[in-house]
Write a structure and sequence with these properties.
This protein is an alpha/beta fold. It contains ten helices and ten strands.
Length: 281
């Protein structure tokens, strides 16, 4: 189906945009308002030309009729925004390392020696790997505590990048050179502009595709959840439902971190406010 590209300009009609927006909302909760119209036209336009569809309506019908569900994943991958870098919003990682982890270890002393953290909406993996590096910096390499980080995202394309563990070195430019040398391998020859996360970091991260508006499957609670810069794409109803379900996934005393551009203001929730973008169960 996907052969010769069609370079003819494509018009996105009001009815087509409405159908696609409703479909995306129903499937993953992302609210594509009128301000996202050009984004939808540009990103899906590439997919439509590659598939030689005549219109957005033809492509939409193909997605609806695809029993395999593969094209739905391609559509959602296309409209997802995946901007991130290592230790984005540094204050959260400082909080994790210098406040949350010491308090957690003190609280669990003599009991469970595991640390379970969920990076929800992990994109290409910089966030979960940054979490692991923070844990290793705080605990040292010979700490008896077992730390694991689950990274989930809607985009299989971004999860593929995360799984590879290979990143352009620009993603690490804000890190001290000692940290880069300790946790990354530098590429050479054609890979000289890239770094690769070391295996001792990579093995502590598990990556899975997860749609945040679908039922969760977790059997054990998490000590901490990073769900940052995700809810900005949802309306209040979807945000409220997600926050409630995140609360249920946390162990008592567990912490939720959201993006600094986000807020739980206007959402009824049982969390205790700690400081901006940080909440505790």
């Amino acid at each position: 189906m996907f052969n010769v590209p069609n370079l003819q300009p494509l018009e996105l009609t009001d009815s087509e945009f409405e159908r696609i927006s409703r479909f995306v909302y129903d499937r993953c909760g992302i609210n594509l308002n009128e301000g996202k119209r050009e984004l939808v036209r540009a990103r899906l336009g590439k997919r439509i030309r590659k598939g030689q569809f005549k219109s957005f309506q033809d492509y939409y019908q193909y997605v609806i009729d695809d029993d395999t569900g593969r094209e739905i994943i391609h559509l959602l991958d296309s409209i997802s925004t995946n901007y991130t870098f290592f230790f984005r919003e540094q204050k959260h990682f400082d909080y994790l390392r210098f406040e949350f982890l010491p308090e957690l270890m003190d609280r669990k002393q003599g009991k469970d020696h595991s640390i379970r953290i969920w990076s929800a909406g992990c994109s290409s993996g910089e966030e979960p790997y940054s979490i692991v590096i923070s844990i290793m910096e705080m605990m040292g390499s010979h700490c008896p505590w077992e730390a694991s980080v689950l990274g989930t995202d809607l985009s299989t394309r971004m999860l593929g990048v995360a799984e590879s563990g290979v990143f352009h070195r620009d993603k690490t430019q804000s890190l001290p050179q000692a940290v880069v040398a300790k946790y990354f391998l530098r590429g050479d020859h054609q890979w000289q502009d890239y770094v690769k996360i070391k295996d001792e970091v990579k093995k502590k991260v598990r990556l899975e595709r997860l749609n945040l508006i679908e039922p969760f499957y977790f059997k054990k609670p998490f000590d901490c959840i990073f769900c940052r810069n995700v809810m900005i794409y949802f309306d209040k109803k979807t945000q409220s439902d997600l926050v409630r379900r995140l609360y249920e996934c946390l162990a008592p005393g567990g912490t939720l971190l959201i993006g600094h551009s986000e807020s739980l203001t206007g959402i009824v929730h049982p969390f205790t406010y700690v400081r901006p973008a940080i909440y505790r169960k």
